[in-house]
Amino acid sequence: CRFRAPANGRYKPTCYEHAANCYTHAFLIVPAIVGSALLHRLSDDCWEKITAWIYGMGLCALFIVSTVFHIVSWKKSHLRTVEHCFHMCDRMVIYFFIAASYAPWLNLRELGPLASHMRWFIWLMAAGGTIYVFLYHEKYKVVELFFYLTMGFSPALVVTSMNNTDGLQELAYGGLIYCLGVVFFKSDGIIPFAHAIWHLFVATAAAVHYYAIWKYLYRSPTDFIRHL
Ligand SMILES: [Zn+2]
């Protein structure tokens, strides 16, 4: 039995879909923690260490908050406000996740004088998105999607102006995977397991981005030369 989402409400997943929504992100919590710790270990200086922390926290927070939200929304029934709160957190963490995903590229690469402002501006956008969720959560879904895409694309303009373009191809591939995933994000109740499929796109894109960050921004210089 499946229910169409009311025009102003949320789609109610079947229990199989609920389970899939939980597991598709729960399985990534441990890899996210291990991956973050690895980047921290590979850091050569303080700035790389801080960036590994920021990126790692964004990565872990995304999968943890998402898993908790989906568990709460699955097991809820009497805890409406708790579910609502976690749904807001689930949406807010996406803004910080986008900022955290760009942070290694913005922090660890040489940027022009104007472009370097994106290092803090992206966090301002994340804060703006969070305030928006507080005020208008679920009211204007198109605006919300527009914010996500703006935040996802505007730092790309800065990043592509860098002198060192190593890894930008992978960065773009990851971005493309997120964009393809949005089709499923918007297909709740139309395509079965649409939200879990969206989760898999997020997981794949995050893995591609992690790989690029690990390979191009964190692998030690001597190791890199050996592979040339
Ligand atoms: Zn989700």
TrEMBL record:
Protein's cellular compartments: Endomembrane system
Membrane topology summary: Multi-pass membrane protein
InterPro entries attached to this UniProt entry: AdipoR/HlyIII-related, Hy-lIII
Source taxon at top rank: Eukaryota
Bilayer-crossing regions: 20-40, 52-72, 92-108, 120-136, 145-162, 197-214
Main location: membrane
Binding site for Zn(2+): H70, H195, H199
CC annotations in GO: endomembrane system; membrane
Keyword Zinc included in the entry's annotation: yes
Keywords: Membrane, Metal-binding, Transmembrane, Transmembrane helix, Zinc
Pfam families: HlyIII
Keyword Nucleotidyltransferase: no
GO molecular function, one term: metal ion binding
Coiled coil: none
PANTHER family for this protein: ADIPOR/PROGESTIN RECEPTOR-RELATED, MONOCYTE TO MACROPHAGE DIFFERENTIATION FACTOR
Family according to the record: Belongs to the ADIPOR family.
UniProt protein name: Monocyte to macrophage differentiation associated
Gene name of the encoded protein: MMD
